[in-house]
Amino acid sequence: MPRQLGELEDAVMTRVWQWNRPVTVREVLEDLQQERSIAYTTVMTVLDNLHQKGWVRREVEGRAYRYTAVSTRAAYSAALMNEAWAQSDNPAAALVAFFGMMSPEQREALNDAVRIVQRDTPEGGPAAAAGPAESSEGGEAPAGPGR
Fold first, then answer.
1. Helices and strands in the chain: count of H runs, count of E runs
2. Predicted confidence band of residue 122 (pLDDT cuts 50, 70, 90)
3. Rounded to the nearest 5 degrees, what angle is found at the Cα of 141, between the Cα atoms of 120 and 68?
4. Residue among 79, 53, 57 at smallest CA distance from 67
5. Which pairs with CB-CB distance under 8 Å and at least 24 residues apart come from 35-41?
């Protein structure tokens, strides 16, 4: 189960997920510097840590690495929600409270997701949603690293 990303890890991963292509430390640094003062070595360390934790893979290109996300933001979010729900002493009550916090748009997205899972689940079998399926927002990757 993945742990929640730290603030800087999340800022870096947000770029990796949004760009959906191999990225360099320099590219991430230049984008982050539009919001904050940050050193090259800090971004390099964060990406190295994310690699060690299994969130990104890297390939050597010249004297630098290119980093690619191992999973999607959607898979990361789903894993965090599953972890929170699993830790509740009353999962049904937790779901009712969570649904009560949702906007009408979020509830509609939830209804759509339930319809997709029900459509893709063989009768009497476990949910086919164990791994995310292709989406209109660019393909989904397998669930995130087990941390």
1. 6, 2
2. confident
3. 170
4. 57
5. 35/11
